[in-house]
Every structure is written in structure tokens, then in C-alpha cells.
Amino acid sequence: MGKLDHKVAVVTGGAKGLGQAMAVAFAKEGATVIAADMGELTYTEKNVFGYNLNVTDVAGVQAFYDAVIAKYGKVDILVNNAGITKDSMTRKMTDEQWDAVINVNLKGVFNMTRLFGPLMEVNGYGSIINISSVVGVFGNIGQANYAATKAGVIGLTMTWAKEFARKGANVRVNAIAPGYIMTDILKTIPQELLDEFAKLTMLKRLGQPEEIASVALFLASDDASYITGQTINANGGMRL
Ligand SMILES: NC(=O)c1ccc[n+]([C@@H]2O[C@H](COP(=O)([O-])OP(=O)(O)OC[C@H]3O[C@@H](n4cnc5c(N)ncnc54)[C@H](O)[C@@H]3O)[C@@H](O)[C@H]2O)c1
User: Fold this and answer.
1) 146 is catalytic
2) pLDDT (tens digit, 9 = 90+) per residue, 10-26?
3) What is the pLDDT of residue 29?
4) How far apart are CA 210 and CA 4, in angstroms?
5) Pick among 3.90.1150.200, 3.40.50.720, 1.10.10.10, 1.20.1420.30: CATH of 8-234
6) Which of 184, 196, 222 is nearest to 77 (CA)?
7) Pocket of ligand 1 (CB under 6 A)
8) Which residues of the chain have pLDDT under 70?
């Protein structure tokens, strides 16, 4: 018996990094997982299926939704994980940098959830997990655009937890705010700075993708049946 037997999960940005770790963890517990990403899957795992999707493309998201429902008939778990950074000090930040990050990290989450959330409400069951960040909780120098989106998804999380359950459906909506986790998104950050970030955690180290996937698995499963509207900080005890 897996914790997610017979469940259908969608993980955006599921081609690598945190999305990969979550997709694999869900599949190992019995879920069928659709890893929706602009890029090709960088791995193979039984019952994880790639789908080419840009979450900023409204028509593409609708076509994805239609295709998933035609094939599987339902979605039980949605992880809004696709995200990007385009860092710059605020005085130098371009419109392009601001808009790109808002479009993927915030509008992309909205594009997905306005379709899958109401579906879960009608089906009476679902778990939505939004991937925020320690940067959305504390703010960070050079990341005004990113911090705005990651704080924004915490607001969306609390809103959707109320909206989709208001008629009594068992739909839970939570966020995970990871600290610094070793994936490609950290590639542009110099090692000295990563070492400084590690020192800012109580555990004195950065995290691994599997340490976020285990939290996502908990929230996705019925183990978290009375948890909704929450943000789980998985950051090794970091303060920024
Ligand atoms: N790694 C960290 O330290 C960390 C910390 C906090 C939060 N996060 C968040 O976790 C999420 C995953 O990050 P990661 O570290 O795995 O990064 P990553 O760069 O390794 O993976 C991100 C994935 O998202 C996909 N993606 C980007 N834009 C997309 C779009 N428009 N449509 C569909 N897919 C798109 C990419 O192709 C990629 O596969 C992001 O939302 C990120 O902000 C990461």
C-alpha cells in the first residue's frame, strides 16, 4: 500500500530539481504523476510522465487541463513548483526582469490553480501545494521580484484554502517555503555566498531536494488531513 495509491498528481517544473524529487517521491508512493515543464524530463521514473507546458501560456494551460482530464478523469494533487529567478538590485531591475518572474512564479500559479482548484472542489477532494521560499518569508537583497512572488503565493495559499473548501469539499491548500536547496536554480549564486547562507541555518548546511519532497509527500497525503492554509518552513532553521 502506497500513501498515494490511485492518486493523480500534476507537478509543474517537474523536469528536474525540486519538481523531480517530488514527482519521484509521489510515484514511489503509488501516484500517477504528470511532470509539466518547459524542458524535457532529465530522468526516468515509473509512472512519471512528462508534458511540455509553459505555465505562463494561458491557452497552453487550458489545453493541458483538457488533455489531463480526458486521459485520467481527475487530478488529486497539484504542486505549483515551476519557478525562476532574475536577480538584480531594485534600482537596476528592468521591466523584463520584473515581469518575467511575476509571470512564471505568480501568474503561472494562478493560471494552473484557477482550473485545477475548482475541479478539485467539484470532485470533493484535493491537495494543492504551492512552492514559496524563505525569500518570500524574510525578503532578500537583490530579489525584489522573486520575494514579491514568493510572498504572493503565501497569500494565494490562504485564500484558496478558504475558497475551495467553502462548500465543504475536502480540498486542502498549503505552501512549502524551502530554504536554499541544492538545485540548478542556485547555479548563479557564488559558492562564498552559498557558504554564508549555510551558516545562517541552525543546521549549518544547505538542503537536498529530497528534504523538500518528503514535506510535499506529507502534505499531499492523507497524513496531513487536518492541515490547510499553512506554510511549512523547510529551511534548516534559517533566518535571512
Ligand atoms: N532550490 C532552492 O534553493 C529553492 C528555494 C526556495 C524555493 N525554490 C523554488 O522551488 C521551485 C523549484 O526550483 P528548483 O530549485 O527545482 O529550480 P530548477 O531551476 O532546478 O527547476 C525549475 C524547473 O521549472 C521549470 N520551469 C521554469 N519556468 C517554467 C515555466 N514557465 N513553465 C513550466 N516550467 C517552467 C524549469 O524548466 C525547471 O525544470 C521554484 O519555484 C523555486 O523558486 C527553490
Assistant:
1) yes
2) 999 999 999 999 999 99
3) 98
4) 17
5) 3.40.50.720
6) 222
7) 12-13, 15-19, 37-39, 53-56, 81-84, 104, 108, 131, 133, 178, 180-181, 183-186
8) none
